[in-house]
Design brief:
By secondary structure, the chain is mainly α. The protein is built from 3 helices and no strands.
């Protein structure tokens, strides 16, 4: 597998496990600043993962050609 693809999936996994809890789920015991930082980290990880996975898929398609 492509390393960009693996890193992208790991970014998504970390985004949904670590900051998702304090950013969106358990907001009762979390301060406003901590929740905001967790939410921003979650968004950065999601978009970074998307860029890496999309780039890996585009490189794989270009490498294999268009089926000719």
């Amino acid at each position: 597998m492509n390393t960009k693809l693996i890193i992208g999936y790991l970014c998504w996994l970390v985004a949904f496990i670590v900051p998702f809890q304090s950013a969106l789920l358990s907001t009762e015991d979390i301060a406003n600043v901590t929740g905001l930082i967790s939410f921003i980290v979650m968004l950065v990880l999601l978009f970074t993962g998307y860029i890496l996975v999309d780039g890996a898929n585009a490189a794989t398609k270009a490498k294999h050609g268009h089926g000719h």
